[in-house]
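Ex. 9. Protein: Protein kinase domain-containing protein.
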Amino acid sequence: MTSGLRLRPRTLTGSNHRQEQQPLRSPSSVIAVSHHSPRWHQRQVEDMMSSDLASSSSSSSSSHPPLLPALAFQEIVLGDIVGRGGFSFVHEIKYVKLQEVYDTGDEEAESRARFASVFGVARSSSGGVDGDEDDDGAVVGGLPPSRRYVLKTLRPDLPEDEHAKGIVDLAVESQFLAALSHPRILSIRGHANSDPLESRYFVILDRLETTLDHKLALWRKDVGENMGYWFGPCLGYCCSRPHVLRRIWAERFAAARDIASALEYLHGMDIVYRDLKPDNVGFNSSGELKMFDFGLAKRVTAADRSSDDDGLYNLTGNTGSLRYMAPEVALNKPYSLSVDAYSFGVLFWQLCSLSIPYSGFSCKMHSDMVVRRGYRPTLDSTWPVSWGSLMGQCWSADHRSRPTFERISMAMNAELEEWTAIAAAEGGDFMTNERGNAGSIDGVESIKARLGKSVFKIRARKDGSRLDVDTRLANPEGTTEWKHDVNIV
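Predicted structure tokens for Protein kinase domain-containing protein:
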């Protein structure tokens, strides 16, 4: 168990009961949530945010992370809505108007001053900002275009039951992001100076330009445009651009490697993510991958262990999106950190095939075939054997057969190093469009031998099912009607 996880000093106080943080996640409790009082929901947040995360940092005496700046909603000038979730809106931040009246102490004032210095926002006792504004309202000489930030807050149109769950999610995410530091995990930059249980609570995050879901669509399009024309088994593809196709392969594989790196970090801190899917993986303006949405994350403790000595924990079942959900989670059985490996196996298959796993499956089909009978996506015979082996281990029905993310990361890095070496022999860059030495055939053939025909293959199908619906929501529109039937998961 790692002791490197640290919380910012600003936390809620509450009981020290160590229980699963979000009992609202199972279908039964979603249906029954309206029977609980607002105070019941408050206790869930307080129990979750008491000593669960802080305990892991108590034994370390070095370098606490700086206190995150706490801002009033009135100090932030918002731009357009740039993202929407089941519980939240994400707004662009145009600029910030720091006001001294909201400084509550020396440490808080220092944190806010540091925020002003880092983000190019000036303090004003009257509520203004030093510097001129351009036609778009952006501060000239203030926040540079390359460093844009967003504000995430609860949707104002949520029904009461969904609002209670949204409060829990945002509070959980705020606490986790404040405690984590990894290049492949989205960074939190600030938060509201109000109680996390209030409707106007918000967090300030780095802005992401796109999600992995959109990237997958772009990769499908790019592969389709560059794989050329099929002239039968004798001639194969003609007019293809293999150097572009190799770059796209490398980008997809690098994305899988980065996700594995982030999950290795989380598991090293005994944190199970539980919601790995393309919608929760993004890319910033520099193209760097970032995992986000930690509303379902949970740090497992000894108190969560099941009665059997099998390494499993009594955690909330039916948590996440069924398409990527491990069978034991869907069946409400005890589970371990390895449920993230299952999700990774399915997502890795999606990255390789550029197809949607279990496309066209209804909820009943998925429950019968995938959860109970062990059906899994079909492996492409042209993929390297090592890829199929890794996928099969990850999505094994037996949690003990799934690899750790330390092993997964090692395998991914070794694979990319091999590709890089082959590309270097060709005289080009595997991660760019450059052809390298056009006269070097050995490098091209080596990569083709490694990837097989898969460099040219694609299955671009649209998904008509609803397996991606988050189990936290009554339905995608956020209404209170529960629709967990054969059409929705």
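Check your answer against this statement. Residues 242-268 form the longest helix (27 residues).
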